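Thread: Newbie trying to understand structure tokens

Hi all, I'm a second-year student working on a class project, and my supervisor (Dr. K.) asked me to get a predicted structure for one chain before our next meeting. I've only ever worked with sequences, so writing a 3D structure as a token string is new to me. If someone could post the tokens and maybe explain what I'm looking at, I'd be very grateful. Here's the chain:
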Amino acid sequence: MASSPSVRRPLAFRLPALRWPLPALLAWAAGWVTLLALPKTAALPPALAVAAALLVAAAPALFAATFWRRVIVAGGFPVSLLATGIGGVLPAWAWLLPLAALALAYPVTAWRDAPVFPTPRDALAGLDRHVDLPAGARILDAGCGLGHGLRALRAVWPHARLAGVEWSWPLTLATRLRCPWARVARGDMWRGSWAGLDLVYLFQRPESMARALAKADAEMRPGSWVVSLEFEAAGRLPQARMDMPSGRPIWIYRIGP
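---
Reply by user tm_fold:
Sure, no problem. This is what the structure looks like when written as tokens:
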């Protein structure tokens, strides 16, 4: 995930907004179409066709909203090109298996939320100095992935009642095994109620933060907390900010006036 929620676009115009990861998929496809079509239509030597395909596939990275998305868009086609060295020994249908696994682990309906990026170990150490929670507090990791955030939260509040919600059912099952002390549900983090929670933890996307704080304002009681790793809610004054040793921020918001 990126270290900056906004990036100045280097060109004067903007492409239509597409739901992630469609921009990456289209960029990679454009690279392959260029590579396959140029030798036939322009009679280019293979080296020049590869160079042109690399340029075509990398150009859309200029429009990506965050650093890591630029890396993914620009790097996907070269990685796939290198991988074709083993492609000759596999049947054509075998290439559908990774796509099927990706669709199961990260379904299309969840593309607007964050992909699976784990919360670093000890990322939330010291959070209890800024957030005062009652005994037996109810804490939700919204979009818990494989449970890294739940483990980080438990390290800070070992006696809290921890819960997670995750859209992907393979990740939900894996997290239930990794975090048997937490209540992990498979579902949509945006549809489930946040009422009665003392703290909601997020490691989402810059675009998600305004929606998350609006949901917290509407459903959580005054005095409860929202904690976001990496991304702040634009236009919202945080109660506090922590910085990890890596320099990545943790934004702490208190609900209510």
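A couple of things are worth pointing out once you decode it. The longest strand covers residues 161-166. The chain has seven helices and seven strands. Feel free to ask follow-ups in this thread.
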